[in-house]
Amino acid sequence: MLRVGSIVWGVRDVPGAIRFWSEALDYRPRDEEPSDDWAILAPREGHGPQLAITEVSSLAGTHQRHHLDLYAFDQAEEVERLVSIGATRVDWDYEPDADYIVLADPDGNRFCVVQAGELANHG
């Protein structure tokens, strides 16, 4: 089972993006003191995907700065299923404790499949 867990939004100004997107979506920072380069926003009420705001150096017009994090109960099974329907594996330099696998859709747009276990069933 997959669900959209986070929409990862690359920005040049994290505090400004926190203010804008919190107001625009009626979201709030998940943590009381978000960092200057990373924050997770969640709905104030009810359920919905998180908005993960991350600092990037690239300009919006020149690089892909946004992607989906798809939460999987069984990551390996979902990755194989996605590859069988047209996704491709992306050569990626993973940190040792990475809980995600980077894939690309048939048009080349990258997304992550995150091992989320039971979290994949909530939302």
From TrEMBL:
<dbReference type="Pfam" id="PF18029">
    <property type="entry name" value="Glyoxalase_6"/>
</dbReference>
<protein>
    <submittedName>
        <fullName>VOC family protein</fullName>
    </submittedName>
</protein>
<dbReference type="InterPro" id="IPR041581">
    <property type="entry name" value="Glyoxalase_6"/>
</dbReference>
<dbReference type="InterPro" id="IPR037523">
    <property type="entry name" value="VOC_core"/>
</dbReference>
<dbReference type="InterPro" id="IPR029068">
    <property type="entry name" value="Glyas_Bleomycin-R_OHBP_Dase"/>
</dbReference>
<feature type="domain" description="VOC">
    <location>
        <begin position="3"/>
        <end position="116"/>
    </location>
</feature>
